[in-house]
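This part of the workshop introduces the protein records we will be handling. Each record describes a single protein and holds just a pair of labelled lines. Instead of coordinates, the fold is spelled out as a row of discrete tokens. To make this concrete, we reproduce a full record directly below:
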Amino acid sequence: MTRFPASFRLGAAALALAALGACSSDDDHSASVPPPANDTACDVLSTNGAVTVGSGLPGDPAAPEPASGYRLGLQPVHSKTYMVVTANPLATKAGCTVLKKGGSAVDAAIAVQAVLGLVEPQSSGLGGGAFMLHYDAKANKVVAFDGRETAPAAATANYLRWIDDSTQQTAPLPSARASGRAIGTPGVLRMLDLAHQTHGTLAWAELVTPAVNLAQQGFAISGRLAQAISGARTQLASDSEAAAYFLNADGSAKALGTTLKNPAYAETLNTLGRQGVNAFYTGLLAQAIVDKIQTTQSAKDGAPITPGKTTLADMAAYRAKAREAVCIDYRNYKVCGMPPPSSGGIAVAQALGILENFDLAAYKPSAVDIYGGKPSVMGVHLVSEALRLAYADRNKYVADADFVPLPGKGVATMLDKSYLQGRAALISTSKSMGTAQAGNLGPVPMGVDSTPENGTTHFTIVDKQGNAVSMTTTVESSLGSFHMARGFILNNQLTDFSDVPADADGNPIANRVAPGKRPRSSMAPTLVFVKRADGSRGALAMGTGSPGGATIIQYVTKTLVGVLDWGLDAQQATAMVDFGAANSPTTNVGGEHPNVAAANGGQNDALVQGLQALGHTVNVGAQSSGTSTIVRSQVGGAPSWTGGADPRREGLVLGDTFRP
């Protein structure tokens, strides 16, 4: 049995990852751990004792409070056999309760998503899409589940650009996002159902019960949801169902702490529990979605809305897909992520493959505290330069590979070690490259597309059997398209497509619209495994992922480097300063972090000054990651899990937790 070297320690708590690289693939992580004498699993351990999430008692993290830029004082959480980390306490509680009953990681994911769609509709929901990485511990198998939305069969290449290709070449009204054109056929439920067929143990009716109860009894509006409603008040007023739910009678936004009840959502979930997921894609639910997509005027003032072209046939034809994960060897690990239509897995893998050529361990953060310390100038420089190169390839080559194949031999070409070594050679340790050029990977000229992406949420789960889920789920922008049907928000995911099919020179853009096509994403749910001596995949070592639109790739790369190269624990790596770059001269250094002096544009901050000296243009604007991380560890000589929730959101870690 092999273990991580003694020098590999996880932060101040001196936790070792303790991933068992030489163990057989069917090791049961929970086998040697006795059940706790006093079962406080899924409770929050506060100074006043166990506090039930949602109770309103002192110490209850679900109590509504204003959205915070960065919550102080979060500590790593340790559990014996199972753990769930989400961006909302009520969702974490629902998932943990399922795991406590013996449910699988996929079971818990269904319960979590059902609650998130209610309490965090600005980020995800039944009317959106998702990507999931699943690890089957017994089979030692990783599968990528694709629940990305699709364009309707009637979509044209200019679907988001013009109302009509021949008769009305003007932009959709009131905007592409707020029109029916933005709404893709939702995929998250089909995806969860596909995973549940193989990896589920509990019935859907039981799994959605926590969300049904919350919808019927009501929940208090949280800080982030309150901000989202306030910011979208005018747009929500155009949809009668959204206005009735989110706004007061006078048209003002419902405020922080207001109790929301959603009987329509409860009935939708009950329908799924009784009839199965097919009921969402056919019949009355599907008709309600199609009717809303085809809406032609605002409920507020009758202003025109350009309808989408989705039909009942599009709904019935939607299929989720099981795909092969994108995996790369990184030092002593195997890191696996999502394949296209997400660009996240390839971009993160490329960044790591480039960084492998540098001694990152020599550039650890200084003054490491519970917030991850102060990143070094060279550490941030190298990671940011690697990301610039990865984004350059992403913007040119990656889209839905079922429609536009990747160059060469596909993923193998983009992750080829010699190719990435060549890309690493472009990095100077004395000056930023500013804007990178894509590698020469294909004979066909392609246009560059950097269409921005927006909202999302992420959760990470490990069950008692050691199975794991890393799932990123979204309705795209905050509150999606602002349209609502049967209690849930509909996405605006199709705006992740390029709205033009070719660049100024006529070169086709890989991420152009086509019937049935899935828009490119940056979502990057990630699972990390120990690499055994023979090069094969060993035990699960880590799961992570984040919301954040196109910046997700930066957040996930930062977190992976924090754990794998810099020895931070799950909470420290998650809480660490968000930094990185897309393919532009601007480098992000999250100014919301307590270890960044963001005043005056960061001009008094040593990290900012050091980066500027290397030619970086530094942005110290607040970053909006929502990373959820679980790392395999050892506490007191016993195998355990350590979890971290992002201080920038409302997240919570729960499981069969204990205090070391």
Observations:
- The first strand starts at residue 44 and ends at 46.
- DSSP finds 19 helices and 22 strands in the chain.
